[in-house]
Every structure is written in C-alpha cells, then in structure tokens.
Amino acid sequence: MDCLIFKTRTEGFHSLGVYQSLKKVVKHEGVIGFYKGNGASVFRIVPYAALHFMTYEQYRCWILDNYSALGTGPVIDLLAGSAAGGTAVLCTYPLDLARTKLAYQVSSLH
User: Fold this and answer.
1) Burial class, 37, CB count within 10 angstroms (exposed 0-12 / middle 13-18 / buried 19+)
2) For residues 49 and 92, is the Cβ–Cβ distance under 8 A?
3) For residue 105, with 0-12 CB atoms within 10 Å meaning exposed, 13-18 middle and 19 or more buried, which class applies?
C-alpha cells in the first residue's frame, strides 16, 4: 500500500496522521492491506529491469556506432540510460497503473 491512501487524502484519512492511518488500515483490512498492489509491483519490475538492461545496451551501441565523435564516457552512458529508462517505463506503465489502482482500493473504512 505504501501509504498511498494517506498521501492522496482518501476519504476517511483526511485528518489522520501516519500512525493513525496505519492503525486504521490494520483494523479494517488487516496486515494484508499493506501489501495491496505488491504482486502487480513485483510482476512489473521483472519486465522493467529486463527492458531497461537490454535497451541500454542497444542504445549505447547505436550511439557509439552513429556518433563516434562523441567518444565514450559518462555522457554516452547517461544518454543511453535515459533512453532505456524511458523505453522501459513506456512499456511497463500499464502494470504500474494497475499496481497503483490496486493499492488505492479501500474497502469500507468508515
């Protein structure tokens, strides 16, 4: 849950602090309430990491092949890493959205 309902000020959590919000979740959903959306998060991280790793190498090789005047170094790594991160996020965003929606669901907390 990572306190998403506290951060977004979900109804029933408006005037509660972190401790009171945590107590309320435990009371109404049990300890399992803290893990809502965690399965989707774990399911998302594997393809995200694989895509990031694979595309980083592809982008780095493409930059080195097409822009050899830039040489090698941290700037090339930054460019390749940024492009790889963007690609991985674009491809796994639906899974991240599902994780957020699962974590945001609140069963009757009133």
Assistant:
1) buried
2) no
3) middle
What is the distance of C-alpha 27 from the center of its chain?
A: 27
Reported confidence tier of residue 8, pLDDT bands at 50, 70, 90:
low
Question: Angle between the 74-104 and 38-66 helix axes, to the nearest 10 degrees?
Answer: 160
Sequence-ordered list of residues with C-beta below 8 angstroms from that of 34, at least 6 positions apart, any chain: 1, 25, 26
Structure tokens at 103: 């974590």
Instruction: Please write the tens of the pLDDT for every residue from 74-89.
Output: 999 999 999 999 999 9
75: Cα separation from own chain's centroid: 25
DSSP letters for 16-60 = --HHHHHHHHHHHH-GGGGGTTHHHHHHHHHHHHHHHHHHHHHHH
First to last CA, the chain: 18
DSSP state of 107: -
pTM of the model: 0.60
